[in-house]
Every structure is written in structure tokens, then in C-alpha cells.
Amino acid sequence: MRVLRAGDAALLIETEAPHRLHAAVRALGRAEIVDVVPGAGTVLVTTAPGTDLGPLGKLLGGLPLPETSTAGGELRVPVVYDGADLEEVASLTGLTRAQVIERHAAAEYVVAYLGFSPGFGYLTGLDERLHVPRRDSPRTAVPAGSVAIAGPYGAIYPSSSPGGWRLLGRTTLRLWDPDREPPSLLQPGTRVRFEVGTADATEPRP
Length: 206
Hints:
- This protein is α+β, with helices and mostly antiparallel strands and 206 residues long.
- The protein contains four helices and 13 strands.
- Helices cover 18% and strands 31% of the residues.
- The strands form four sheets. It has a four-stranded antiparallel sheet, with helices on one face. Strands 5-13-6-7 form a four-stranded mixed sheet. Strands 10-9-12 form a three-stranded antiparallel sheet, with no helix packed on it.
């Protein structure tokens, strides 16, 4: 890990395990740490004004990481695999439709970080055979609940939005609800499993 100053009240830590570092920093419970935001390969730690960043940076730079993060719990997502790009993904990977579905549902995913839109989790753990590029031409509107892949990541669109990820299927789980606490079902470290079946669930299943 490499720790860099980010202004007068924040540290940016470069790491290959952002969601694990996020969990470790959160677990410290230090009063001077205001927020912890994981990214693709970094964790931003913001602090209270006046915090001495030198000692804190040394502490965080040597922080042992948990083998896995259980902070976000586990979410099982029922999916109807009838996505508009399923056939194209099969063609790009040299797999059959059934094999694409089987490989996607068999993987164990972890939310590395949230971004792009509220509640949009970038899921690591996608089978390497399913690593395909984004569409050349993004869609102007992708329906909420769309289950998608792009590059090394999987995702579920929490709300209708433009997007260029390859659509494999859909679920009726509401990933983002501003009236719920917390609004997002996905948090950094949440483990996600996809289940082949009918998308008729409206709440997370244990």
C-alpha cells in the first residue's frame, strides 16, 4: 500500500484490496476519521480539520487487512436471464447461452466500491471467460434491475440510466430506495450471489 496526502484533511491510499482496507479502517473507530470511500484501486480517508496526518498515515499504511470483509453482509439476487446482450456475450466468449448463464451465476462476487450512480456497485469475482468490453454505443436508458457485465466487473443497475454494459438479465430487487435505511442494498464488502430463476423478489433474501 502507498499512502498519499490529499489536501490538508485527507489521505489517499493506493491498494489492491480497496473493500478489505475500507473494512479495516472502519473497524478502527477512530474519532478523527470522518469518512472512508473505496475506489477501484484506492481508499480515500477524510479526517477532521486539524488532524495530524503523519502518524495516521503511518498507522493506515501498515494496517493488517482482513482475509474477507463481512461488513456488507450477503445478498442473494434472483435473476431472469433474458438480457438483450446475452447472445452477443455468448458469441464474444465462444460459449453457449447456457454456459454464460451458468458461469455468471456460479461466481461469488464482492462489492469493491460504489460509483457511477447512487447504489451502483462494482462487483469483483466475475469469471474471466466473461470479461467482455462495453458496448461501442451505450444505451440511452437501461432499466432498473438490469444485471450486466463489462470488463472484469459485474453490476446491477439500481435505477434507470444511460449505460454501455452488456445486459445478461434482470431482477426486481430494488437496489436503491431513498426511503430505506440505508438506501442502498449494496455496500463495499457486500457478498453477492446470483440465482437463476424468476425475478419476483422485492426484498433481499438470506
